[in-house]
Amino acid sequence: MIVLKTRRELELMREAGRISARALKLAGEAVEPGVSTLEIDTIARKYIESQGATPNFLGLYGFPATACISVNNEVIHGIPDSKHILKSGDIVSIDLGAAIHGYNGDNAATFACGDVSAEAKRLMDVTKESLYAGLKCAVAGNRVGDISNAVQKYCEDRGYGVVRDYTGHGVGAKLHEDPPIPNYGTPGKGVRLLPGMTIAVEPMINEGTWRVKQLDNGWTVVTADGKLSAHFENTVAITKSGECVILTDPD
Ligand code: MG
């Protein structure tokens, strides 16, 4: 069931989004050689709690942390760990959200740790650009497939693999709502976008094959070929006219 949000609900989602975005920004600023992924998680959790909000990943389906922190060949759902010390050259995908007043925000970005290779930088840039290519199509009257296809085409035209096993999603009173927002698809197909829909668009893009596998810990998803992966995500609201509004905006 797709829930359309009222203006008041969108205001509450904007607040959840702002806290989510600020927590992500702080977490990203903490990415540097010698820091553990658990330290980054703690920074995000403390910030979210200081705002009177709740880390909405913590405990969801049993996930043990505030943030999913996925390094290099890890695609999503990396578990923060005091023994995982970041080193220069790593690329670090951080995915987190906050809930407040009963509504959720969800966002992600990949950060460079120290000096990263030109190839890694390009993957990060293209993944971020593909998010915005998708968001340009997040317009009332379009369909989910328009977003999906824009992301897919942007990345595949540049030689990258688009993860298919995991998707974006609706966001609202629940972190994961309908409809799913795949990062691959056909223009003009799928659910029609309506004003008041709030969705998370989140390209997960691989340097090599789109295929992924899950580690034995039951969480961490890695690329099947061991190559790098990047992840960017915003929660947005579909408006009556024109471009969507980014709810996970720190400002
Ligand atoms: Mg999400």
Question: How is this structure best described in words?
Answer:
27% of the residues lie in helices and 24% in strands. It has four helices and 17 strands. It has 251 residues and is an alpha+beta fold. The strands form five sheets. Strands 10-9-11-16-17 form a five-stranded antiparallel beta sheet. A three-stranded antiparallel beta sheet has the order 1-5-6, with helices on one face. The longest helix has 23 residues. α1 packs antiparallel against α2 and α3 runs antiparallel to α4. The protein is globular, with a radius of gyration of 17 Å. A hairpin with a 6-residue loop joins β9 and β10. Bound molecules: magnesium ion. Magnesium ion (MG) binds next to loops.
Q: Quick gist of this model?
A:
The protein is an alpha+beta fold. The chain is 27% helix and 24% strand.
Give the tags.
single chain, about 250 residues, alpha+beta, binds magnesium ion
